[in-house]
Design goal:
By secondary structure, this protein is mostly helical. Helices cover about 75% and strands about 0% of the residues. The protein has one domain (about 5-125). The chain has six helices and no strands.
Length: about 140
């Protein structure tokens, strides 16, 4: 991790993960955070553990981590977001809970997309890999 954008995205990933942990715990105690509850509690818990693996892979600059992160978040948050957008376009009135869920779903998908774009645009990821075991010998 050499780029500032990667550091910032990983920090946002961890902060969003922490928010989802708090949201899940509050939901388990019977009270949602600001009225927002997870759409599927079982999948949410699996998603929280998978996110930890994805964060580690993104820190190691592995593209599979960003792709997996985007795929998991698109599957989980995409359905809820499309349902809310469909309801809005059909002239339905959204509740505060639905608007909050849609907002955080949009943030989750945008964050995952930003992580993938950051790794795809990093030209030095494959061109100049760093190997600490041998680089000391070849440094000029």
């Amino acid at each position: 991790m050499k780029k500032l954008s990667t550091y910032l995205l990983v920090m946002f990933m961890i902060m969003f993960w922490g928010f989802r942990v708090v949201l899940t715990l509050m939901s388990q105690m019977g009270d949602g955070l600001m009225g927002i509850v997870p759409a599927n509690l079982t999948f949410e818990i699996v998603l929280l553990f998978a996110t930890l693996v994805c964060v580690i892979l993104v820190v190691k600059r592995k593209l599979i981590g960003a792709v997996l992160y985007l795929a998991l978040y698109a599957v989980y948050f995409g359905g809820e977001l499309t349902t809310t957008i469909t309801k809005m376009t059909n002239g339905g009135v959204l509740t505060t809970q639905e608007m909050g869920s849609a907002f955080f779903s949009l943030i989750g998908i945008m964050l995952a997309l930003a992580v993938l774009i950051d790794l795809l645009l990093d030209k030095n990821r494959k061109a100049h890999p760093v190997d600490k075991k041998t680089d000391w010998f070849y440094k000029k």
